[in-house]
Design goal:
With 457 residues, the chain is α+β, with helices and mostly antiparallel strands. It contains 9 helices and 20 strands. The protein folds into 2 domains: 331 residues, Alpha-Beta Complex (Naphthalene 1,2-dioxygenase Alpha Subunit, Chain A, domain 1), CATH 3.90.380.10; 114 residues, Rieske [2Fe-2S] iron-sulphur domain (Rieske Iron-sulfur Protein), CATH 2.102.10. Strands 12-13-14-15-16-17-11-20 form an 8-stranded mixed beta sheet. α1 packs across α9. The structure holds FE2/S2 (inorganic) cluster and fe (ii) ion.
């Protein structure tokens, strides 16, 4: 069945006409603008509430928080997932006070009302005493739309929303070949950052900044915009296909193969020195060897991917606030969540998901290069953009930025966002001046404007 999975297409989408709305500074610091976003945009969009394998068994639950809302996400007896506002309908107490767990019933800590995992009220003390008879019969928690897809749990506050598949089309089809639902989430970080959430999402929607901000990446990423493909879809999904595993043309040392590309080539049976002077050939050679050696090395999922996907970065931006960077050996979610009251603060989330590879090779050759995954105690590790981590579902971890790191590349992005947050408030800044390759930033803000305008009416 899985062998019939449709390949991720490379077709270039016809150019989308953008209006050129001005992106002025106030949307990054105005309380009024934040209020509009939280009241007009967020209640209408599909959002990732969590990683589905966090709640593998019936009765397992976690709480997803966004803005002022808390959502209780629960695995049902029939293994589907449902989601409810985490609020007791009696007098509005928060129903569940812990972030995760497994419970057969949810009991309110105020007057003891009890709800089952389907959200139905099962017990209310002195129920005969209701002034309006039958008030507590058939009473349920308020439900929100919920779907499981690509390994994520998605929710939408709107019960009459566009189906998820349509909302994230065509990304949902493009990402299916990666087999992400079988991956492990090995990194689950959050840091509170003193900048607007869109400042970071803008950053993750362009690669114009790579040469100046992340020169380390240029030894393995061909970030020149002429070599990348950019696509913007009607749904609001944007993507960028960027060649990987060859140095950027503008990289100062682009004649020589450097770490981590050296290690990746060795890991796949290639001698890095043979590509010195012809580094652009490393990518194709690697594709061929990966294809040839994948099965015997336990890389069970490569057969669903095209040759280009075996080396390249397929980057998808989702409306309104997250991106997924896909590589064959792991994928990264970057998501700045809005702060409920302060437009100049956000919660930056960094997740990394990897396939489980039986055998001796690292689960993540793309970000860091091949290393032995066995440590002395026999535990399995994998490389991630935030360093080496245990190959297991990671518990959530709060990061105190900048004392602690979100991953060195993200730290660089966050550092700039903090500086930019100050700059956009200056009278000297009028509005962003965007290049063609920053079209995804423009598209995203135009979508945001459309949502606000449409729902304001
Ligand atoms: S507020 Fe929950 S039982 Fe009263
Ligand atoms: Fe960046």
């Amino acid at each position: 069945m899985e062998n019939k999975i449709k390949r991720t297409p490379r077709d270039k989408e016809p150019e989308l006409k953008l209006r050129g709305d001005k992106i002025a500074g106030n949307r990054y610091y105005s309380k009024d603008f934040l209020h509009k976003e939280l009241s007009l945009v967020w209640p209408k969009v599909w959002q990732i509430a969590g990683w589905a394998s966090e709640i593998p068994e019936p009765n397992d639950f976690f709480i997803y928080k966004v803005g002022h809302e808390e959502i209780l996400v629960v695995r049902q007896k029939d293994t589907t997932i449902r989601a409810f506002y985490n609020v007791c309908p009696h007098r509005g107490n928060l129903l569940v006070q812990v972030n995760e767990g497994s419970l057969k019933t949810f009991k309110c800590s105020y007057h003891g009302w009890e709800f089952n995992t389907e959200g139905i009220l099962k017990y209310a003390k002195d129920s005969e005493d209701f002034v309006e008879k039958n008030l507590c019969e058939n009473l349920s928690l308020e439900e929100v739309s919920c779907e499981e897809s690509l390994g994520f749990v998605w929710i939408n506050f709107d019960r009459n929303c566009t189906p998820l598949r349509e909302f994230i089309y065509p990304a949902i089809e493009h990402l299916e070949p990666y087999q992400t639902k079988k991956f492990l989430r090995v990194l689950n970080l959050t840091a509170e950052i003193k900048c607007n959430w869109k400042m970071l999402h803008d950053n993750f929607s362009e690669t114009y900044h790579v040469d100046t901000l992340h020169p380390e990446l240029m030894s393995q990423m061909d970030n020149n915009y002429n070599d990348s493909q950019f696509d913007m879809y009607e749904s609001g999904i944007n993507r960028m296909l960027m060649p990987g595993h060859r140095p950027a043309k503008s990289f100062i040392n682009n004649n020589v193969i450097e770490f981590p590309l050296t290690d990746v080539l060795k890991m796949w049976g290639l001698d890095p020195s043979q590509f010195n002077g012809k580094t652009s050939e490393a990518r194709t050679a690697l594709q061929n060897n990966k294809r040839k050696l994948a099965k015997e090395n336990g890389y069970w999922h490569y057969e669903f991917l095209t040759n280009e996907q075996l080396t390249d970065y397929y980057h998808y931006s989702f409306f309104p606030n997250f991106s997924l960077t896909m590589t064959p050996d792991g994928f990264e979610l970057l998501r700045p969540q809005p702060h409920p009251t302060d437009p100049e603060r956000c919660f930056m989330e960094h997740w990394y998901m990897v396939p489980i590879i039986e055998g001796s090779l690292s689960g993540s050759s793309t970000f860091k290069g091949g290393e032995d995954i066995n440590n002395l105690e026999g535990e399995l590790f994998t490389e991630t953009p935030a360093g080496r981590r245990l190959l297991q579902n990671a518990p959530h971890q709060w990061v105190e930025y900048p004392k602690e790191s979100l991953g060195f590349i993200i730290d660089q992005d966050v550092g700039i966002a903090l500086s930019q947050q100050k700059g956009v408030k200056s009278r000297g800044f009028k509005h962003s001046l965007l290049l063609g390759q920053e079209g995804r930033v423009r598209r995203y803000h135009e979508m945001l404007n459309d949502y606000i305008r449409r729902t304001e009416k």
